[in-house]
């Protein structure tokens, strides 16, 4: 291959990596946004359900249908659900790739990320470097 072909090949490879990383970050932002929307919807539904239950209790109708009473425990909070999955089998860096991996968001880390940030900024922090990115960058500069 001539130098010109080699340079063109390397340029296209760089563009493909940049596009893949950009797409990954966009997908990540969308997932975090969907999680926030789902949490808001759950909260609203829970409040409506409690309001209806309180209205029924206040009206004094009593239990007309004893079989209608749920024996299922109440829904866990987001914090309890977040702690449930505390490990991941996904490797921290992509296999066979030079692209830096993003910090994995699962379990408590996902819950903290989605609850500690204001509603509009969940996606913006993905463009900052994560501890994993910093350690990868340090390794590359030390070489």
UniProtKB/TrEMBL annotation:
<feature type="compositionally biased region" description="Basic and acidic residues">
    <location>
        <begin position="22"/>
        <end position="39"/>
    </location>
</feature>
<feature type="compositionally biased region" description="Low complexity">
    <location>
        <begin position="118"/>
        <end position="133"/>
    </location>
</feature>
<feature type="compositionally biased region" description="Polar residues">
    <location>
        <begin position="72"/>
        <end position="95"/>
    </location>
</feature>
<feature type="compositionally biased region" description="Basic residues">
    <location>
        <begin position="1"/>
        <end position="21"/>
    </location>
</feature>
<protein>
    <submittedName>
        <fullName>Protein gvpI</fullName>
    </submittedName>
</protein>
<feature type="compositionally biased region" description="Basic and acidic residues">
    <location>
        <begin position="46"/>
        <end position="56"/>
    </location>
</feature>
<feature type="region of interest" description="Disordered">
    <location>
        <begin position="1"/>
        <end position="143"/>
    </location>
</feature>
């Amino acid at each position: 291959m001539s130098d010109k072909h080699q340079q063109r090949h390397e340029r296209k490879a760089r563009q493909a990596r940049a596009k893949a990383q950009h797409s990954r970050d966009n997908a990540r932002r969308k997932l975090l946004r969907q999680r926030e929307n789902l949490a808001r919807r759950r909260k609203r539904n829970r409040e409506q359900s409690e309001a209806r239950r309180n209205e029924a209790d206040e009206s004094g109708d009593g239990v007309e249908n004893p079989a209608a009473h749920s024996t299922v425990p109440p829904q866990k909070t987001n914090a309890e659900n977040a702690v449930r999955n505390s490990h991941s089998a996904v490797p921290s860096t992509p296999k066979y790739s030079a692209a830096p991996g993003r910090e994995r968001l699962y379990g408590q880390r996902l819950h903290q990320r989605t609850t500690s940030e204001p509603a509009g900024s969940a996606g913006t922090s993905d463009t900052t470097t994560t501890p994993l990115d910093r350690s990868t960058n340090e390794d590359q500069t030390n070489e």
